[in-house]
Specification:
The chain is of the alpha/beta class. Helix content is 45%, strand content 19%. It contains eight helices and five strands, in the order αββααααβαβααβ. Strands 2-1-3-4-5 form a five-stranded mixed sheet. Helix 6 runs parallel beside helix 8. The chain is globular, with a radius of gyration of 14 Å.
Length: 147
């Protein structure tokens, strides 16, 4: 990982802090040629109120929440996304987001290795994500982050 990877991953971490999700805030940054194309964090869709009961009901929250990767990719011109790098915090993308990443033409994903709690909770999805990203030729680079 070079200094630019570190900087963009740090930016994804900062953006994750903008999420109102009381469980896990996630951030994503789409970059091409060191130019930021789009950013996103996980949250309810625009126009949907971040009410306490929605955010505290895990099943409801998961049904309504757009992931950081989805929000970042929604802001990127599809032609520009081809060959870009996606930086994600605090863990690699889930299988659903991996499908969207593949479809968008992203060439590389950089993310921290998942913290133990997320690795256990999202185990199956992270395995599938890694498998399909590899099959599609998308590089997935996970970085060990020291606490």
């Amino acid at each position: 990982m070079n200094k630019w990877d570190s900087r963009f991953l740090e930016l994804a971490q900062i953006i994750a802090g903008w999420s109102k999700d009381p469980g896990t805030g996630c951030g994503a940054v789409v970059v091409k040629d060191r130019r930021i194309l789009g950013t996103g964090f996980n949250g309810l869709p625009a126009g949907i109120e971040d009410r306490y009961e929605r955010l505290m009901d895990r099943d409801l929250k998961l049904q309504l929440t757009l992931h950081a990767e989805d929000n970042a990719l929604a802001r990127v011109n599809p032609q520009e996304a081809r060959g870009a790098t996606l930086y994600v915090w605090p863990m690699p993308p889930c299988a659903h987001c991996a499908a969207r990443i593949i479809q968008s033409g992203i060439a590389r994903v950089v993310a921290p290795a998942p913290p133990r709690e997320q690795a256990e909770r999202w185990h199956q999805s992270l395995l599938l994500s890694s498998e399909v990203l590899q099959e599609a030729g998308v590089s997935l680079e996970t970085v060990q982050i020291c606490p």
